[in-house]
Design a protein that fits this description.
Elements lengths: L3 E4 L4 E5 L4 H12 L1 E8 L5 H12 L3 E5 L2 E6 L7 E4 L4 H14 L3 E4 L10 H6 L5 E5 L5 E5 L5 E4 L5 H10 L7 E5 L6 H13 L5 E3 L2 E4 L5 E2 L2 E3 L4 H12 L3 E5 L11 H9 L2 E5 L2 E5 L7 E3 L7 H8 L5 E5 L11 H11 L4 E4 L2 E5 L6 E3 L5 H12 L5 E3 L12 H7 L3 E3 L5
Parallel strand pairs: 2-16, 3-14, 3-15, 6-7, 10-11, 19-20, 23-24
Antiparallel strand pairs: 1-24, 1-25, 3-5, 4-5, 7-9, 8-9, 11-13, 12-13, 16-18, 17-18, 20-22, 21-22
Helix pairs in contact: 1-2, 1-3, 1-6, 3-5, 5-6, 7-8, 7-9, 7-11, 9-10, 9-11
Length: 421
Amino acid sequence: MREVTVFPSRLCGEVEVPPSKSAAHRAMFCAALAEGRSVLRKIAPSDDMLATLGAVRAIGRSAALSGDTLEISGPCAAPSAAAVDCRESGSTLRFLIPVLGALGIPAELTGRGRLPQRPIGCYLDCLPPHGLRMETAGGLPLRLSGKLTPGEYALPGNISSQFLTGLLLALPLLGGDSVLRLTTPLESAGYVDMTLDVMRAFGVQAEAVPGGWKIPGGQRYRAREYAVEGDWSQAAFFLEAAALGGEITLRGLRPDSTQGDRAALGLFSRWGVRAGWEGGRLSAAPGTWRELSVDASQIPDLVPALAATAARAPGRTRIYNAGRLRLKESDRLRAMAQGLAALGVPVEEGPDSLEITGGPVRGGKVEGFHDHRIVMAFAVLACAAEGPVQITDAESVSKSYPAFWADLKRMGGNIDGLDLG
C-alpha cells in the first residue's frame, strides 16, 4: 500500500485524455476473433489492458504491444486448453467466458483483488443450458468446458452490461441464430451501444428487437485498423477539477461518442461548469454552482467524481439508483461515504444512494480501498481542500490510468510520496 499526500493547489492546463478502457477491451476482443492482422492504436498499457492482452494470447492469437500500438493476428493454432489470469478486470473475465464457450476452448480462469468474489451468477444460470459446463465454488477459480449452442439467452437488464457485452461478442460465432432477451429494463445502455458500435466496425451485426437483440450466427469478424477514442470516464475527473476551480482543456474526446459516460459533460454543465468545444478540444472552467440530483443507473463509473465534487457544491446533492457500485473494485458507496466523512463532509449513505452536503473540505486521511476511481476522485478533491490530504493505495490508478499522478502534477498538483519523474 503506497500513500501519497496531496496539498491544496489550483489545477490548470491541457491534458490528453487516456484512451477509453471500455472501447479498448471491446476492440481487442473483436480483433482477436477476426482472421488476419488488426492494428489497434491508442492502447494504454494499464493493468486491465494487460489482462485482456493475456486473454487474447491464451485463446491462440498473436499479440504484440509497442508503445500505444497493438497488433493482433490470428487465429494461430487453437490451444487444447487455456489458463487466464484476469487480474482485477471484470471486463476481461465477463467478456471472455462466453467467447471461450463459443470457441469451445476448455479453460481455467483466475483473478485477484475483489474479482474472485464479483458476481458471475447470471452466466451460471444461462450458459450451462446452452452447452457450457462451468465448475466453480461461487466465483474464481472458474473451470469451463464444452461449447455454446445457439438459441435464446435471457438476462436481466439491471446487471452489469459486461455480461450482455460478452454474449453479444460471442453469439455471432455460433452456427445458428440467437436471441438475447432482457427480462428487466436495460441499465448502462451506453456501454451496450459502444459494444454494438465496435462490433459493427469489425463487420459483425446484432439487430435490435423489442426487449433485446437478434444475433445472426455464422458471422465472421474482419481484421482492420482501429483507433481507440478518449475515455469520458477519466475525463470526469478533470471536469471535477474544473468544477472545483480549475481551468482545464481536454484533448482526445469524441463529442459524438457512444460512451454512456459522455453524460459527464451534461451533468457538470448543469452543475454550473462552463464548457465548450473548439478545434476538437473541450475547455472547462468553474461557473456559478447550481444544485444537482443524479440518477446513477446509467452512469455508475461517474459516481466517485460526482460525489467528490458534491463535497464543495453548496446545498445538498443526491446521487441515487447506485446500488451496483457496491459490487465494483470496492464498495464505492461505502468508500466515498467514509472518505468524505474523514474530510469533514456531511454525508448520508443509503442502500443505493449518497446525500452530500457541500461546504469546506478539511485535510485528513482517506482510504483508497485499492480502487482506482476512489483514489483519483479524492486526489482531485484534495487539491481544493483546506489542508493536506493523505490517500492510501495510490498505485491502484495503474488499473486504468497509469499516468494519472504525472498528469495531475503537470497541471499544478502538489503531491508528495511518489517518484513521479
